[in-house]
Specification:
heterodimer, A: mainly beta, four-stranded antiparallel β-sheet, 12 strands, about 50% strand, B: mainly beta, seven-stranded mixed β-sheet, 11 strands, about 60% strand
């Protein structure tokens, strides 16, 4: 079945370091792909998304490119800040067009000043 | 600005009690979701509603039921709470399709003693 695999955390970085959080997926069709972020004590909020191959989603300095050939949607940011400390979830929507989202297990990021 | 609200941020209940968790969205979305979030397991879908009075079971519906009498409101019911239902519960809504973003509420942390 469909699945999303994220790198395990926690990821600890110094401020201004480069961030990559890996995400790969398995799906039979052409899913839409999402990155959500969860700050402490809050619900998830959309960070960025891409709905077709080669699309690049971007927001708040974060980027991810939908790579169908490698079935990946890796999250990157050139210079992280302490305020980026959160849990990041990769997700795909069911390509069959039904209701399901498939979420990864989340990657905790901790940025040190 | 989109908004999903949940009736409580924290709840403490006793084993065997009937528990109601309510979720309201103000975006006129057709689809609404209930997830539970547990460490190491990510988000798991409990129930989904694609229209008023319409519902479908998710991955872990056992021990839960739902109600959607109005478009903006989606309730999760624990018929007889058990300790293994201690968790974070997240409600989300989405316009209609898999390409659309899910918007999440802040979550309810439920503890069953």
């Amino acid at each position: 079945g469909d699945s999303v695999t994220q790198m395990e955390g926690p990821v600890t970085l110094s401020e201004e370091a480069f961030l990559t959080i890996n995400c790969t997926y398995t799906a039979t069709g052409y899913p839409s792909l999402f990155w959500y972020v969860q700050y402490p004590g809050e619900g998830l909020q959309l960070l960025l998304k891409a709905t077709k191959a080669d699309d690049k989603g971007s927001n708040k300095g974060f980027e991810a490119t939908y790579r169908k050939e490698t079935t990946s949607f890796h999250l990157e940011k050139g210079s992280v800040q302490v305020s980026d400390s959160a849990v990041y979830f990769c997700a795909l929507s069911d390509p069959a067009g039904t209701y399901k989202y498939i979420f990864g297990t989340g990657t905790r990021l901790k940025v040190l000043a | 600005d989109v908004k999903v609200t949940q009736s409580s941020r924290y709840l403490v209940k006793r084993t065997g009690e009937k528990v109601f968790l309510e979720c309201v969205q103000d975006m006129d979305h057709e689809n609404m979701f209930w997830y539970r979030q547990d460490p190491g397991l990510g988000l798991r879908l409990i129930y989904f509603s694609y229209d008023v009075k319409m519902k479908e079971k998710g991955d872990i519906p056992e021990g839960y039921s739902v109600s959607r009498e109005k478009k903006e409101r989606f309730s999760l019911i624990l018929e007889s709470a058990s300790t293994n239902q201690t968790s974070m519960y997240l409600c989300a809504s989405r316009a209609r399709t898999g390409k659309d973003t899910q918007y999440f509420g802040p979550g309810t942390r439920l503890t069953v003693l």
